[in-house]
Amino acid sequence: MRTGAEYLAAITDEREIYVDGERVRNVAEHAAFRPIAATIAELFDVAADPASKMTHTDPDTGIETNRVFTAPRSREDLAAFRHAAETWARHTHGWVGRSPDHVGAFFDAFAAHPEAFASGDRDFAANVTAYHQRMQRENLYLSYAIIPPQVSRATTAHAWEGELIQVGVAEEREDGIVVRGAQMLATGAAVADEIFVSCIKPLTDNDRDFAISFAVPVGAKGLKLYCRRPFAPAATSAYDYPLTSRYDETDALLVFDDVFIPWERVFVDRDVAGLRKQFFDTGAHVLGNWQAQIRFAVKLQFIAGIARKVAQTNGVDKFPGVVEKLGELASLASLVESAVLAAEYTAEPDAAGVWRPGSRAVYGAMGLQAELYPRALAILRDLVGGGVLQVPSSVADMRNPETRADIDRYIHSPSAPAADRIKLFKLAWDAVGSEFAGRHHQYEMFYAGAPFVVKGYAFRNYGFDGPVGEVETFLAGYDESA
Ligand SMILES: Cc1cc2nc3c(=O)[nH]c(=O)nc-3n(C[C@H](O)[C@H](O)[C@H](O)COP(=O)(O)OP(=O)(O)OC[C@H]3O[C@@H](n4cnc5c(N)ncnc54)[C@H](O)[C@@H]3O)c2cc1C
Question: Into how many domains does the chain fold?
């Protein structure tokens, strides 16, 4: 099993990342990326610790690896996968969306369904299984970018002004393809080993050049990462910004300036139908998004915990109105937890023997996420009141003897001296109000696609035939004479 130190050494390469008009020289040391790199390193150390019980040997490949890098082949495997994903999620309290198990889960399902990649003359099926075995052996951390850049959503890439704005094939060579263009929005890419690049948005037959999928090292020549403003450097301390200072994953627009991709790293080549097969026929989408819901459930529990503790600290937790708000938050959190378990309970083996989490439960929970997360935040925001702003500007005020006495006297609660109270309310602010919090709000609403896309998954996977049939049977049971 890979250690955190091995991971940190591996990401110290020639990757081309731009922030604030400058090229980042050493990603593991840069103020914007060091904190999240350290957190990911911790995840690898957690997994490598036998106490976490995240290690197993894949019976198909014989490789000893992290449980999250193997497709579940029984109900027990599903439970073990959930345990492993939850162990990682608990380490970050759900605030790291793209830990290595997310894209890992997609590749687990890809490799279990090589037939979905078998098209044309080239053996992409062999590519995907070989790549997955490498992922198992090396515990690879992949980020992904599977959405075209937001140029126009009225048309697809072939109709955009300028050639190859969305990443596509610029040239085919004997030994691979050269890709050019951009793709959004690779969370964690700056500190990943490699990036999976593909397109999940539906394409037309005119978009064949963009219908590709491949894995590329972050340090590949010609690949540039344009990161949104990082929040970690502005975090004055872990005390002031406990979440920003640890979990700012960063998000990047990828630009491919004629990047060579050898054939063995290509999984879909100019095949519009192949992209849909890759994501949906393999079960990758439902397995990867089950992982996302396992993580989301952990995060909601944490938010519920902050809310309850804030209410206790302010002495309002027994007021009926507050109990009602906490009760609503508890309901939201437990709905997601229940969907995670329901997906496991309703899982079934597919033709390849992979146990797929029940899609009705996974997509049902996802379909509500764009309302559920903002609602959870609204309740926490409501309960904290002005307490999140009635805090000293930074930990420096706590250390200044001129101000400390006032802070101790006026910013405390019966159950919490000033230092504890301020610590809690600064955590609450980092969850609801900081720039990091705002990004998380956007993340939970959009990470799996815009709400209309995600509700489309819920619509298609609910199985309306049963309910409609029931209504029709009921209607058939009476007529005008009744
Ligand atoms: C913080 C963050 C991190 C992310 N991380 C990743 C990542 O790691 N990898 C990755 O691949 N993706 C990631 N995503 C998701 C992805 O990049 C997109 O944000 C997502 O797919 C939605 O697409 P969009 O942002 O272009 O929004 P759009 O799809 O353009 O939607 C914007 C608005 O337009 C409306 N709209 C657009 N088209 C239609 C239509 N046809 N019908 C009705 N309404 C429409 C939507 O309802 C929405 O209100 C991330 C997103 C965020 C916000």
Answer: 1
